[in-house]
Amino acid sequence: MALYQTIYQMIKEQESAVVQAYLKNLKHSFKRGLILTLFIALFIVGLGISTLVLFQLSTYLGFFVIILFGLSLLFLCTFMIIYSIYPWPLKKSIHETVYVVLSSSANSIILLVLPILTCWFMTQWVFFLFVALGVAVSACLQLFFFIKVLEVDESGQ
Predict the structure, then answer these.
(1) How far separated are the first and last CA of the chain, in Å rounded?
(2) Which class for 114: exposed (0-12), middle (13-18), buried (19 or more C-beta within 10 A)?
(3) What is the pLDDT of residue 129?
(4) C-beta atoms surrounding 53 within 10 Å
(5) How far out from the chain centre does Cα 60 lie?
(6) Higher-scoring residue by pLDDT: 2, 117
(7) Which residue has the higher pLDDT, 83 or 41?
(8) Do 85 and 5 touch, CB atoms closer than 8 A?
(9) pLDDT tens, 34-43?
């Protein structure tokens, strides 16, 4: 969460000292990070239980389970970015995430695919590059895309 906030501040040119901004955001967002971790854990448990229930009802519901998993991945990826960037409470972040995922699913898919492609390209070149820069570059690409596309959509409405 602090990584997303620090990169967002760098993109918006609000901070210049990266390490100091990261440590400040880490202290500031520790409680929100715990809430995010708990929410994601409960969400994954709920998804697992709903999958088991669907398969116990009928094994022919496999297609519905795939759709449920896909939408859940889109929701979690977009929710992590929205909850990390904006100081909104959990309920409003969930509401905005549902709106973003349902209104622009293609943008949410790109937010989900960017880290996967970044990791794949970096591991193809040099494994050390992936270890050193993988998560930060992925988060930076996600935020660049988020700011350029999704915030433009919100301001245009």
Answers:
(1) 27
(2) buried
(3) 64
(4) 10
(5) 31
(6) 2
(7) 41
(8) yes
(9) 888 999 999 9
Which of 42-46, 62-66, 139-143 has the lowest average pLDDT? 139-143
Indicate the domain borders of the chain. Answer: 2-156
- 133 Cα distance to chain centroid: 18
Residue 153 has pLDDT above 60, yes or no: no
Cα separation, 62 vs 37, in Å, equals 28
> Token pair for residue 8?
């967002």
> Can you give the pTM of this predicted structure?
0.68
Average pLDDT (135-139) is: 71
pLDDT of residue 6: 82
- One-letter identity of residue 52: L
Q: In sequence order, what are the residues at sequence separation of 6 or more whose Cβ sits closer than 8 angstroms to the Cβ of residue 140?
A: 7, 11
Token pair in block for residue 99: 């709106």
- 112 closest CA partner among 154, 153, 69, 152: 69
Q: Are 39 and 72 in contact (CB under 8 A)?
A: no
Sole residue written with tokens 């991945």: 73
- Cβ-count burial of 84 within 10 angstroms (0-12 exposed, 13-18 middle, 19+ buried)? buried
Q: Which helix (H) or strand (E) segment is 21 a member of? A: helix 18-28
